[in-house]
Amino acid sequence: MDEVLASVAETIKNFAVIYLVDITEVPDFNTMYELYDPSTVMFFFRNKHIMIDLGTGNNNKINWALTDKQEFIDIVETVYRGARKGRGLVIAPKDYSTKYRY
């Protein structure tokens, strides 16, 4: 996930900024957002938490590693467009309800 974030940072710099936060040093939001996973991606727009419906049941965050750069760019772009329109919950461009495609 680190490689994906680093590689897309230049591409999405016009509409998103990536911040790395160590939750052991900044424990304020750990209980509020249930941050206990090794890697979690959350979206904020103008100090407001933007939820994203990925089909997983957890609309607050992405807590698995995305390996496809374009897939992550599409998610960020969808969140940005929805947040600019004032939406607090946006629908992901891809459904992640099943991890394995049968």
Provide structural commentary.
The model has no long low-confidence stretch (mean pLDDT 87). The protein starts with a helix and ends in an 11-residue tail after the last strand. It has one domain: Glutaredoxin, CATH 3.40.30.10. The protein has a three-stranded mixed β-sheet, with helices on one face. It has helices at 2-8, 69-84, and strands spanning 43-45, 48-53, 89-91. It has two helices and three strands, in the order αββαβ. The radius of gyration is 13 Å and the shape is globular. α1 packs across α2. It is α+β, with helices and mostly antiparallel strands.
Overall number of domains: 1
SSE arrangement, N to C: HEEHE
Q: What is the fold-level CATH name, i.e. the topology?
A: Glutaredoxin
Biggest sheet record: 3 strands, mixed
Give me the oligomer status: single chain
Spatial separation of the terminal alpha carbons: 24 Å
The number of strands is: 3
Strand content: 5-15%
What attributes does this structure have?
single chain, 102 residues, Glutaredoxin, 3-stranded mixed beta sheet, 23% helix
Quick structural gist:
With 102 residues, the protein is of the alpha+beta class. The chain is built from 2 helices and 3 strands, in the order αββαβ.
List the helices and strands and how they pair.
Elements: H1 2-8, E1 43-45, E2 48-53, H2 69-84, E3 89-91
Parallel strand pairs: 2-3
Antiparallel strand pairs: 1-2
Helix pairs in contact: 1-2
